[in-house]
Amino acid sequence: MKSFLVSIISILFRIFLVILALYYVSKAGKTAYNLGYRVFAEPAVSSGTGIDITVTIPEGSGASEIGEILAGKGLIRDASLFKYQERLSAYHGKLQSGVYTLKTSMTAEEMMAVMSGEDNEDEDEKK
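RESULT FIELD:
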């Protein structure tokens, strides 16, 4: 009888561990999905025409520093997210120092296009 009880407790403990593992895998998956979704689909801070804000990007600034500057000016919601967005975008390593006028209605990718100089090239091609 004692070994039967120990077996039942052992089985219940294993079931508990499996359920606990599934819970944490599910939670990690949900977190990863939400981060991935935000990286590629984060909306602009405001809709409509937005507000013009001038930012100065110092020489040698990386994506983390630029994200902090943009978040500080209210152009993006999350500086850490901007770092991932830049890393996974076509603008990785292309952001340049300078003074830019950006709008709160711009997405992070649109801001990166301006700060990489590629936005100006698109306008030149249209002319």
